[in-house]
């Protein structure tokens, strides 16, 4: 069982990386092999629209995306992470998504894998929902099965979305915190890690049963 985390933040090792790390840590505790990739540490060029991938599952460009594509093919689950930039994913994450076109145009090579996403932002209800939606659409394009985690108990939020907003002071001014202190988001992230492994195992078992009865 392999779960691959892909961080689209321009700043490796910061809040978004920590939130993604919580997902992977929980998945690892459930027995999965995990790996976290920082897009900021890779050399990935822009898709140039050459349409090579319309005829075969290959890209005309060759850079670190070659290695990342193989990691995605081998993974049972993929988790995307991005901070909110102008109510969407980062340009780095968008460029990565476009470079996965060869996995989609001929046949959906990632079909049936499980997926999940986490996001960070400065403020609540200020674009983070659209950031999550952009990642969810990427999963849908590749026919992946998206996990929407919810820890047991009362609803604390809509997904693993950590923000730096901690409320207002007596004068109505914002109180800021590190996104790493968003306890509800990190609880959801850990739930996501466990749920990803659980769903992937169920799917693996179903496929094994199907193969045995053929």
Automatic annotation (TrEMBL):
Instruction: Quote the InterPro entries the UniProt record gives.
Output: Flavoprotein-like_sf (IPR029039), FMN_Rdtase-like_dom (IPR005025), ISF_SsuE-like (IPR051796)
User: Keywords assigned by UniProt?
Assistant: Flavoprotein, FMN
**Ranges for domain NADPH-dependent FMN reductase-like:** 1-148
Query: GO molecular function: any one?
Result: oxidoreductase activity
PANTHER family, per this entry?
Answer: IRON-SULFUR FLAVOPROTEIN MJ1083, NAD(P)H-DEPENDENT FMN-CONTAINING OXIDOREDUCTASE YWQN-RELATED
Protein name as catalogued = Flavodoxin family protein
Species, as recorded: Enteroscipio rubneri
């Amino acid at each position: 069982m392999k779960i691959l985390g892909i961080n689209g933040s321009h700043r490796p090792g910061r809040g978004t990386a920590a939130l993604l790390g919580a997902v992977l840590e929980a998945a690892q505790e459930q027995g999965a092999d995990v790996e976290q990739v920082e897009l900021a540490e890779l050399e990935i060029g822009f898709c140039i629209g050459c349409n090579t991938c319309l005829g075969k599952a290959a890209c005309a460009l060759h850079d670190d995306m070659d290695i990342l594509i193989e990691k995605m093919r081998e993974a049972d689950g993929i988790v995307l992470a991005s901070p909110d930039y102008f109510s969407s994913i980062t340009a780095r994450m968008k460029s990565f998504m476009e470079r996965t076109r060869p996995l989609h145009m001929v046949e959906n090579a990632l079909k049936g894998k499980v997926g999940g996403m986490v996001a960070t932002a400065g403020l609540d209800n200020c674009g983070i929902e659209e950031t999550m939606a952009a990642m969810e659409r990427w999963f849908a394009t590749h026919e992946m099965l998206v996990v929407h985690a919810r820890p047991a108990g009362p609803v604390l939020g809509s997904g693993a979305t950590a923000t730096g907003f901690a409320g207002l002071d007596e004068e109505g001014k914002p109180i800021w915190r590190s996104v790493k202190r968003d306890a509800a988001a990190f609880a959801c992230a850990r739930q996501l890690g466990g749920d990803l492994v659980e769903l992937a195992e169920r799917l693996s078992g179903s496929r094994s049963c199907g193969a045995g009865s053929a």
